[in-house]
From TrEMBL:
CDD domains: CYP503A1-like. The chain crosses the membrane at residues 6-24. It comes from Aspergillus caelatus. Its EC number is 1.14.14.124, 1.14.14.125. It holds the Pfam family p450. It is a single-pass type II membrane protein. This is Dihydromonacolin L monooxygenase LovA. The keyword Metal-binding applies. GO terms for cellular component: endoplasmic reticulum membrane.
């Protein structure tokens, strides 16, 4: 009897897997030429290797050769790459959706990945708050600023002797604590347990996504119960929910006590309190915090790392940057106006971002059958993206392989507004565009400028002698050198600047 049940359960599981596999395989019919298909490459080993190591070349040469959109075969399926001339078409087309794509590629429905669901939930609570309350909010600047000094003291210390940074934690730690001052507020921003949970979740989450992509799509819902990074996500989510629940209860209790005493309740200016004020918000506070960390930490930390490397490689930038920061702060005081005047720093940040950009932008899923301007049909379910290799195109950027900290400052002074860090354009679209343009880009700019201002005045930086650092390509993405050897030394207090 048991044998029969087992064999029938086994049979049904097999049928389900095969059906899923068939659906997955039949979904995968290319419309445009596949640029990484090779004769005899039955297991797609060469296709994926080429995609992982040479996506930029595949895109540039493929678009030039075919004079039409192309298809990239990626370990996660087929991706259509459109030429950059179609950027505006993508930005304005309502049959294309960014959030659907992210939900699918980043497994929003999986247990432990609820933070991803919360980030892109259909009620848009979080994204709306980022747009309306976080972007260009000058009131948060002193709070972020106050947290950076202690964070640097904690992670970077105050030794006057050159010493290596712990590249992974000493960079993410600074960004995480600066961001937490506004995401979670005073109770937990610098709390070691909370910081450990949040940073670990971000690391585990992206590792879990990579881990799952290595499995065939129909099997992922099953194997995620056993894979180590996915399991760690479930564990960390539970911890984050418990910690945040305590903070929410504490704030609710404070409000009740104040009311009983006829006093005004304490006011908080952070994302936690903004979300507590949204009527009918059903998202657990822990999920909201992890959603924010997921969107904000990895992206901003990666750029922070690249800027540190670029400044270390170009020490001639340090003095002009210090002078600009000092003048901006003394002319305007600490606030949005001063940060806006840090134009060279803005240019350096944008140029560093150009060193590690994705080779495609505007990634979207087709949610209803749609047609390109030339009439070619894009069926529902296709994954598309737009070529962004113009960032290395010599017709767009002179000497594109070189790092020039003044590049965007010069373009800005020549009247090109899109040269500001927070602007996205066809030639530099790392923040995307249209209705899904990154709502956190102003906050990222604020955070980075404040962190870098502190660092430039408080530390000297250099790469370890003989060490050269290069970003690493990984498919259409690039990551900063993961083992960069950066050394720091606390500067003598000069009294030049007091934050
Ligand atoms: C240097 C740092 C950052 C980079 C490079 C970056 C990049 C991006 C990109 C490329 C998109 C997709 C846009 C599109 O396809 O049109 C995006 C979306 C998003 N980003 Fe950022 N981001 C950064 C920092 C942040 C920060 C600090 C936050 C939060 C405070 C944030 C929150 C979001 C959210 C919520 C979305 C989804 C928007 C939507 O789906 O409508 N990002 N970001």
């Amino acid at each position: 009897m048991l044998d029969q049940i087992f064999s029938s359960a086994f049979t049904w599981t097999l049928i389900a897997i095969l059906a899923g596999w068939y659906r997955y395989a039949t979904k995968q019919r290319p419309i445009f030429p596949v640029v990484n298909d090779y004769q005899g490459d039955f297991f797609r080993r060469k296709a994926y290797r080429e995609y992982n190591q040479n996506a930029k070349r595949l895109i540039v040469e493929g678009l030039a050769q075919h004079g039409s959109p192309i298809t990239l075969r990626t370990p996660d399926g087929l991706k259509i790459v459109l030429p950059s001339a179609l950027s505006d078409w993508v930005k304005t087309n309502r049959d294309l959706d960014h959030q659907e794509l992210i939900r699918e590629e980043y497994f929003a429905g999986f247990p432990g990945f609820e933070a991803q669901y919360t980030l892109h939930a259909p009620d848009n609570i979080l994204i709306n708050l980022l747009r309306t309350k976080l972007s260009q909010n000058g009131e948060i600047i002193p709070t972020v600023n106050r947290h950076i000094g202690p964070a640097l003291q904690h992670y970077w210390g105050d030794s006057g002797i050159w010493s290596p940074l712990d590249w992974e934690s000493d960079t993410m730690g600074i960004i995480s604590r600066a961001a937490a001052s506004i995401f979670v507020g005073p109770e937990k921003a610098a709390d070691t347990e909370w910081q450990t949970v949040v940073q670990a979740y971000v690391r585990e989450y992206f590792a879990a996504v990579r881990e799952l992509h290595a499995w065939h799509a129909p099997l992922r819902r099953i194997v995620q119960w056993f894979l180590p990074h996915s399991s760690a996500c479930r564990e960390l989510l539970g911890q984050a929910r418990a910690i945040m629940q305590q903070v929410v209860q504490k704030r609710e209790q404070e409000a009740r006590t104040a009311e009983q005493q006829g006093l005004a309740a304490p006011q908080y200016n952070d994302v936690l309190s903004w979300t507590m004020q949204v009527p009918n918000n059903k998202h657990p506070a822990g999920d909201i915090q992890l959603a924010l960390a997921m969107a904000a930490l990895f992206t901003t930390t990666e750029l922070f790392r690249q800027i540190l490397i670029d400044i270390a490689k170009h020490p001639e930038l340090v003095e002009p940057l210090r002078q600009e920061i000092q003048k901006s702060l003394s002319d305007h005081g600490l606030g949005l106006a001063a940060l806006a005047k840090m134009e060279l720093l803005d240019s350096v940040m944008k140029e560093s971002q150009r060193q590690i950009p994705v080779t495609v932008g505007l990634e979207r899923k087709v949610i209803r059958d749609t047609s390109l301007p030339d009439g070619t049909r894009l069926p529902k379910g296709s994954h598309i993206a737009v070529d962004s290799t113009d960032m290395w195109n010599p017709e767009v950027y002179e000497d594109p392989e070189a790092f020039d900290g003044y590049r965007f400052l010069k373009r800005r002074h020549a009247g090109e507004n899109a040269s500001q860090f927070v602007q996205s354009s066809r030639e530099h679209n790392v923040f995307g565009g249209g209705r899904h343009i990154c709502p956190g880009r102003f906050f990222a700019a604020t955070e980075l400028k404040l962190c870098l201002a502190h660092i430039l005045f408080e530390y000297d930086l250099r790469l370890k002698e003989g060490y050269d650092s290069q970003p690493m390509a990984h498919g259409v993405y690039a990551i900063v050198d993961p083992v960069a050897q950066l050394e720091i030394r606390r500067r003598e207090k000069t009294g030049e600047l007091a934050f």
